Amino acid sequence: KSPLKQAATSHSVLTEIQPHCQPLTTPPKPKETLPADPWTPTSNLKMLISAASPEIRSREQRRELSNCTSKVLQTKQCLQEQLSGDEYERSQPSRKEKSLGLLCHKFLARYPDYPSTAESTFICLDEVAEELNVERRRIYDIVNVLESLHMVSRLAKNKYAWHGWHNLSKTLQALKKAGEENKYTQQIEMIKKREYEHVFDLDGERNEEMTRPFGSNEHSEMSFVELPGMEFRAASVNSRKDKSLRVMSQKFVMLFLVSTPQVVSLEVAAKILIGEDQLEDLDKSKFKTKIRRLYDIANVLSSLELIKKVHVTEERGRKPAFKWTGPEVLTNIPDTELETTSTTCPPPVSESIPSKEQCSKNLFPSRGKQNFTRHPSLIKLVKSIENDRRTIQSAPTSPVKISASTDQNLSALPGEMEQVPAIAKHQLKGQSKKAKETKMKLSRSALECNSSSPEVVPKPEPPRSAALSQQPALTQPPGVRPPSHSAVAPAILPHPHSGVSYAIYLCPSQAHTVTTYSPSFVLQPLPCANVTGIKSINSKVFNKMTTEEGDNQTATDDSTKSLTAKERPTVKSETSQRCLKRSQPLQENNLIKRFRSDEESLDTSLTFFPSGYLIALPQCSHGSKAGFSNKEKAGICSLQHTTYSSAIAGVIPVAAPELKAVPTFHITPLNIMLSPTSIAAAPVLSNSSLHSHNTSSAQNPSSSVLNFTLQHIGLIPAGVRVPANPVLQHIPVSSQPENVSHSSENKNLQEKVSKNVLQLLDHDGLSEKLTVSLSLPDPKEPQTVTENFFQTPGGPNTVSLPSANSDGIDRISQGTLYIPQRKLEVSEN
DNA sequence: TGATCCCGCCAACGT
DNA sequence: ACGTTGGCGGGATCA
C-alpha cells in the first residue's frame, strides 16, 4: 500500500531531502540509519566494481552533490523548526520538495543515462517508490511520461526496463513525424487564430472553422507512437488501451517539435489535446483537468530538460508556456536509417562526454553510414576531453543500483556507455553562482585545449543553466543540443567581425508559424522585414490580427528593449557601449527597474524571426584556429544572450569554437528571437578588422561541402545543389536603395552583404531564390551580415525580404510562408 | 488572486 | 478477490 506520509525510511541517500528532524508528526523509523547504500546484497561487490567505473563515480558525485544540498535544506528546516518552536509537521516538506519534478530528478539519478544496451536495467516500481519514499502513484506519473519517450518500457506489471537516452533521438524524430502528419502546426495556428478572433472579433462567423478546421481527420485518434524494435517488449505485457498520460505526453512533445518558435503555451496545448477530434465544447472543467495533467507532464519533461518553462506575452497577457530545450530534431531522415542509426541523445546535464567515435560520427549526424575521416584537431580535442573527464570522475564511489553486468560492460567498453549524472538541479538553483563557476572552469579547460583564449566571458544566462554543466558544449554529440543555451551559442554565432559571408536559408516547413516583429515604436522606424509584398491567402486574416497585436505590444516592446539594452553592458565593447547610449531610451528608470526585477530570471522578451539558417561561408579558418578574442567572445556572448532561442534550433553541432579548426560551415539556425534592443545595441567592431578579414578571405568552401551540409541538415533535398558561394553571384537587389547606408565608407561591405542570398526551399526540394537585401550596416559598425541581420530591426539596418524573385514570392504565397506580425514574447519565469 | 500541482480516492484492469 | 494502474479533480501552496 502507499506508505504513510511520514514513513521516513531512508533507503537512499536521495531521499534525504525528506526531513528527519520533525519530531512531532510521525516518529520516523530510526531503523536503518546507516549511510551506506543498502542498494542490494551485492552492493559490496558493486562498490569494488564501481571503483573502476567512471560512470559510477560520476553518479556518486552527483549524489554527493544532492546530498550536500539536501543537507543544507535539512539543517535549514531544522533550524526553522527550532526557531519557530512547534511548527510541527507540514511546514517541513515544503510542497516544492515534493514536486514531481524533483522526484523525477531523483528518479533519473538512479539510472545511467546511457545504460548498457547489452544488459537491461530494470525498474521495480515498488522499490523505487519505497526508496524515493513516495507513493507509487507518483512513480507512475514519471514512468508514464518516460515511457512516452521510450526511455523506459514496460516489461511486466510493476516492472519496467530502463533505456535511458538511447532512444530519445529516434523517438523524437518519430514524434515529430507523427506531429507533422497530424498537422499539428496547422492546428496550433488554428487555435491561435481562433483565440485571436475570439478576442478581437465580436462578429459571429467563427463556428464554421471552429468545428472542423482540419479536413482530414481520418486518424483523429493518433495513438501511442512506438519505436520499431521497442514495441515488442511493450506489447508483451502491455495491454494498450488507455495510456492517456503517455499519449498526452507524446502529443505534447509533438507540439514542440512541429512549432517553430518551439514554444507551446499550456492553453494551446490543452486545447489541441482535448479537442483535436472532438467538438470543441469548451468544457471548463475538462480544460482545467487537462491543464493539470499537462503540468504533470511538463514537470517531468522539465526534469529531463527537454523543455523549460517560459511565459508568452500576447494580447491576452502572460500565459504559461514551455519552450523546447531538447535536441533539435531533424525531419528528413529516412526511416531505414532511423531504425539502424543509433544517434545518441545527451542527457540534460552535459556532463557526459561522448566518445571520440560518437563525437566524430555525430559531427555529421544521422546521414547514415557515411564514413568520415576525422579531422586531426578533432581527435585531439576529444582526447583531451576524455582525459579531463577521467580526472573529474576519478573520485571513488559507492555502489550504485545497477546490475553488476552493466557495470562490467561499462568497464569493458569505456567511453561507450557514457552516462550523465542527473543532478537535482532544483536543489541547486540557489547555488547557481557556484555552479556557474564550476561550469566555466570546466569549459575553459576544454577551450584551452583548443588554444583559444582562456578567458571565459561571464555572461548573463538563464537561471536554469545553473545546473552543473560540467562539460563544454562541444562535447555534446551533434544533432543534439546541450541544455544550456550558453553552451552552444558561441558556436552558433559566426565570427562577429570576420567579414564572413552568409547565406540565409529559410526552411519553409518552419516558416509556417514564423512570426516576425513589427516595430511600432519610435526607435524602430523601419520594419525589419518587409513582407508586404507577399500576398498570402491568409494574409488578410493575419494582417489584421498582427497589426492590432503589434499596436498592443508597443508598450511591451519598449520595456523589452530597455531591458536588453540594460544588460548589454556586460559586453566589453566600447563601441557597443556607444551604441547602447545611442539607443538607450529615455525611460531608463523604467528599464532599470524592470531589469532588476528580472535580472535573475532573464526575463528577456524576445521577438521571433523567421526560422531558417544562417550559414557562414567561412574563409576557411584563417589558417589558424585562433579562438575568439575576448572581445569577440564578448560580442558573441552578448549576441547569444539575446538570441538564445537559436540555440535550440542548433541543427549542427557547430557549437564548439574548436570546430573552427576544421574547415566547416557555421550554420546558424535562424530560429531567432530578437529583442529589438539587443539589435540596437549590438557590438561594433572596427572597420579595419573587417576589411582585413574581408580581403583575407581567399578560400571558399567547396560547393560539394556546402551542398552536403545543407542536405545533411535537411535544408535541401538530396538532389538539389546550391552554388558554393552565393556571394559571388551577382543578384540584383532592388530594394537595397531604400536602406540607405549612412556612409559611403561602407560600400564594399554593403555590396557584399546585399549579395547574400536568401534561399527558400520547398518541401519538395524545389528551391527558389530570394535575394535578401541586407542593408548596409552602419558605416561605423562593420559587422558581419549576421549581425546586421540581427540588428536590422533596431538600427538603421533593414532586411527586406521579398526584394527580388517574384516567383519565389508567389511560391511563398501559396501558403508555405506567411509572416504574421504577431509578436510573441517569451520570458523565462 | 491566479498559477501550480500534490494528494489520494476509486474505477478499470490484470492476474 | 486482490493488486496494479492511472484518471481525475479537490483544494493546498506558491508567487
Question: Please, could you describe this protein's structure?
Answer:
By secondary structure, this protein is α+β, with helices and mostly antiparallel strands. It has a domain at 100-197 and 240-324. It is 42% helix and 8% strand. The strands form 5 sheets. The chain has a 5-stranded mixed β-sheet with strand order 10-9-7-12-13. Strands 4-6-5-16 form a 4-stranded antiparallel β-sheet. Strand 12 and strand 13 (767-771) form a beta hairpin. The radius of gyration is 26 Å and the shape is globular. Residues 1-91, 202-220, 232-237 and 334-825 have low confidence and may be disordered. It binds a DNA duplex (15 and 15 nucleotides) through helix 5 and helix 12.
